[in-house]
Automatic annotation (TrEMBL):
Database matches in PANTHER family: PHD FINGER PROTEIN (PTHR12420), PHD FINGER PROTEIN 7 (PTHR12420:SF47)
Record flagged with keyword Glycosyltransferase: no
Pfam entry (one): PHD_G2E3
Keyword Metal-binding annotated: yes
Organism listed in the record: Leucopsar rothschildi (Bali myna)
Gene3D superfamilies: Zinc/RING finger domain, C3HC4 (zinc finger)
SUPFAM superfamilies, A to Z: FYVE/PHD zinc finger
Stretches assigned to the RING-type domain: 80-127
Signal peptide annotation: none
An example Gene Ontology CC term for this record: nucleus
Protein name per its UniProtKB record: PHF7 protein
Keywords: Metal-binding, Zinc, Zinc-finger
GO molecular function, one term: zinc ion binding
Domain PHD-type: 1-65
Amino acid sequence: FLAEDTRHIIREAAKKSCFICCKMGATITCCKMSCHRSFHLPCAPDGECVTQYFGAYRSFCWEHRPQQALQPRPSQDNTCSICLDTVEDKISYKTMGCPACQDARFHRHCIQRLALHSGIAFRCPRCLNQEPFMMEMLTMGIRLSKRPPSWQSDQEVGPSDQRHRRCDAATCLCPGGREHAEADGPWQLWLCSSCAAEGTHQQCPSLGTSKYTWECNTC
């Protein structure tokens, strides 16, 4: 039955058009009941869509995605707290902020890269708040890594502990679940060729057998 369910999901996805690139095979649908927008995971940034990488792995189109409710900034420093480049003067999909200090601002792509490199030490780059900040980032679609920080030495963290072992596709099609991986075939787990902090089964993003590397959306 699980194999048949998987085939059904693949067949249904093949019928759906991505509202961003207009190509078929859109496997992700906005979780808003009244919304029928579907999209490809790589197209999500261009369409300002959000996928929450925790719990039920819910996805939202640009219209129904969660929004940050932050107070006006105590300072007028319109620079990213990570790259120090200019950010927008208001919160948007591309410009995010810390719910704890209400002052830190950063580009979405900057905080995403920080999250992947920081791992379990992820926190606000300005006020260093962790718990409320982390939950806010998860809700806003930032992917977190459960690994130790990338800057820790190899002596502290062995290579076997660092390897990512989970499928992070928005819709995992594997009958054995996200943690299942095989040595070869459609349920082989591929890691991002750039950061190795994200993984996907070969079958889940419909990459086909002719492609031997995969790069996550962040990279």
